[in-house]
Amino acid sequence: DVGGTHKIRTSQDVLCKVNGSILQRMFLGVHEMRKSHDGFIFLDRDGKTFLNVINYLRNDRKNFPAFETKLE
Questions:
Q1: pLDDT of res. 43
Q2: Which pLDDT band holds residue 60 (cuts at 50, 70, 90)?
Q3: pLDDT at 55 over 70
Q4: Mean per-residue pLDDT, 32-53
């Protein structure tokens, strides 16, 4: 569930496509994820925007934009 407005279902493989991405780290156990009682994860993000991200990842891209991440 994303942002409480979109029920987006996708696989962990899709979320982990970009090596080193925050999504990959989240879903490969680097960050603790709390699951709901039914086993799903809630992401507090804008659902419409996140749907665009998921659709982009689902298109089997070979090259991804480079983003500089700052972890504090």
A1: 77
A2: confident
A3: yes
A4: 78
Number of other CB atoms surrounding residue 21 within 10 Å: 16
pTM for this model (two decimals)? 0.64
Half-sphere exposure of 49 (CA within 13 A, CB side): 5
Separation CA 19–CA 12 (nearest Å): 13
Distance in angstroms (rounded) separating the CA atoms of residues 27 and 16: 7
Which tokens belong to 69? 């991440």
Q: Is 67 exposed, middle or buried (0-12, 13-18, 19+ CB in 10 A)?
A: exposed
Asked if residues 50 and 6 have their Cβ atoms less than 8 Å apart, the reply is: yes
Give the DSSP letter of residue 62.
Answer: S
Alpha-carbon distance values, 67 to 19, 21, 22 (Å): 12, 9, 10
Token digits for 23? 């999504």
